[in-house]
Amino acid sequence: MTTKKPCCGKIISVSRRTDVPAYFSEWFFNCLKEGYVEVLNPYNQRQIRYVPLLPDHVQGFVFWSKNPRPMLDKLNLLSAYPYYFLFTLNPYGSDIEVNLPPKHTIIDTFKTLSDALGRERVIWRYDPVLFSDTIGIDFHIKSFEETAKQLSAYTGKVIFSYMDCYKKTETTLKTLRIKTPHEEQKMLIAENFSRIAQSYRLEIESCAENIDLAQYNIARARCVDPALFGRPGGKPPEYIKDKSQREFCGCTCSVDIGLYRSCRAGCVYCYAK
User: Fold this and answer.
1) Burial of 261: CB neighbours in 10 Å, binned 0-12, 13-18, 19+
2) What is 3-256's CATH number, 3.40.50.300, 3.40.718.10, 3.80.30.30, 3.40.309.10?
3) Residues paired with 252 in a beta bridge
4) How far apart are CA 161 and CA 163, in angstroms?
């Protein structure tokens, strides 16, 4: 028998589980219209959380996406809510990020979204940093600077992380000879990314990394950050570390919606397959 478990909405993460803005925006806006969303427990699909989506119940939305273009003409439907976008834009080709639009199209979407919301509400993610036979330190330094140059007028912050290897992606990554950089390479990338970010007046943070990069003026990120949800005349939500995330994740508590194994982007490194 399926059971429904009520849940207060609070901050809604849309989503670590799948790219809702790119592939399921119509579903999301239908849920918004209905005033709630049902969220399956990935470990027990007989358990469903009922998450209210009415403005009085939602402290804010965080949208995670590599291509939020399908949402651009519907942003007016979010006018009653605080929200911002975490926009991942990497330099990889279709061998690694299989089904994404061309980079120039993605960059155009980033700029259009920023023009609509303001640069402080569109945060660039360079995530994850990975190595292969043809992708190394020089590739990342060049790619990061080229992208920073194009986006610096459209965002105030970049968040990066290094690739983590998951059991479900291990075989594919080995076949493609993709690996995570070792610690010395990580530090060199961090040093150069920080230098480039500063030159373009971008704040730079690292996501869920267990190495301290403070010497390069790189803070630990709170990708889901209550400080970004303050309503006019009100206080932002309280910060409460999300214990369901990785040890070094700085995110505050939120509710992820959407389904795992539903994203169509086909990124070979993805943990959510």
Assistant:
1) exposed
2) 3.80.30.30
3) 241
4) 7
Instruction: Determine the 3-state secondary structure of 209 from DSSP.
Output: coil
pLDDT digits (tens, 9 = 90+) for 137-169: 999 999 999 999 999 999 999 999 999 988 889
Phi and psi dihedrals of 186, rounded to 5?
-60, -45
List all residues 6 or more positions away from 255 whose beta carbon is below 8 Å from its beta carbon.
Answer: 7, 9, 10, 11, 12, 13, 39, 49, 51
Q: What are phi and psi of 264, to 5 degrees?
A: -100, 5
- Name the E strands within 54-135: 58-65, 83-88, 122-129
pTM: 0.94
- Three-state DSSP class for 57? coil
CA-closest candidate to residue 123, choices 81, 74, 159: 159
Q: What one-letter code names the amino acid at 86?
A: L
Q: Is 172 helix (H, G, I), strand (E, B) or coil?
A: helix
| Residue located via tokens 């539903």 | 262
Count of alpha carbons within 13 Å of 166, Cβ hemisphere only? 11
Q: How many residues would you count in the chain?
A: 273
**237 C-beta neighbours (distance < 10 Å), count:** 21
Q: Which residue has the tokens 């209210």?
A: 52
- Over residues 212-247, the pLDDT tens digits come to 999 999 999 999 999 998 665 667 888 999 998 999
Nearest to 62 by CA among 29, 16, 13, 18: 13
Q: Checking DSSP bridges between strand 83-88 and strand 58-65, what pairing results, if any?
A: parallel
